[in-house]
Amino acid sequence: MRNGFCVFDSRGLDRDRMGDGLEEVAEWMEKGVRHRQPCRGASLLDASAPAKRFVRRRVNCVILVANLRELHRSLLSGDAGPLEATYDLVHHPPIKINSSISSNTQLSHSRAAEKPILVLTHGDELSPEERMEARVKVCEHLGVPDTNGVYDIPCVNEYGAAVDEMDPTTAYAVAEVILRALMVADRSRRPKARIKDRLLLVLAWAMCALSAWFAFLSRCCAKLGRANREAKLRVQ
């Protein structure tokens, strides 16, 4: 697509093999991903549609999905394994996206690390009090703001419809997740260099080189003129 985007949905990481999972995630972030690319430990794909025939694309935005119900159960049982695994994934250095942020008041561009977008699901299977308490505790442990750093989305059934009705709050949260993901992906994506842009870049470098050359000649001529005047004064 000329002006589009692709979404890659990977399977969940195995908590008992987080080392391999984090290594695979780092490989995705470094080398990119393809359509129909198998995960480690998955069965081989159909040979009629190998992943190599698809273009490898760089990851421009990361969305992490965590099961709030399971995290709540782990908090009640005292098992910190799921929460620690989520923490390791959220703060995994390769998973952060470097995006170029430009300021309207400054001409300079700075590089900032975009943290992954955290989405909590299955929270609607808890009571409102349990849902709020679990969300606050999870955000505190992960170091994520519970007001704007996480999105609590209801789960869906086998028909793809939400268990609860899509109220305006949930619809707004889903739209905000998509909008934020597109903004992060757009900031981190390098624009394709066109022939016109390359010609302008070459012309700019040529003008800079030409101006530097004339500045050098002007300085040399000034030194020669000064030396000539000093020589005439000595003769007189």
What does this structure look like?
It is a single chain. The strands form two sheets. The chain has a three-stranded parallel beta sheet, with helices on both faces. Strands 2-3 form a two-stranded antiparallel sheet. The protein is 47% helix and 11% strand. It is mainly alpha-helical. The chain has helices spanning 18-31, 68-77, 81-90, 128-142, 168-188, 195-235; strands at 63-67, 97-102, 109-114, 117-121, 150-152. The protein is built from six helices and five strands; from the N terminus they run H-E-H-H-E-E-E-H-E-H-H. The radius of gyration is 28 Å and the shape is elongated. It has two domains: 60-188; 195-236.
Helices and strands in order:
Blueprint (H helix, E strand, L loop, with lengths): L17 H14 L31 E5 H10 L3 H10 L6 E6 L6 E6 L2 E5 L6 H15 L7 E3 L15 H21 L6 H41 L1
Parallel strand pairs: 1-4, 4-5
Antiparallel strand pairs: 2-3
Keywords: Membrane, Transmembrane, Transmembrane helix
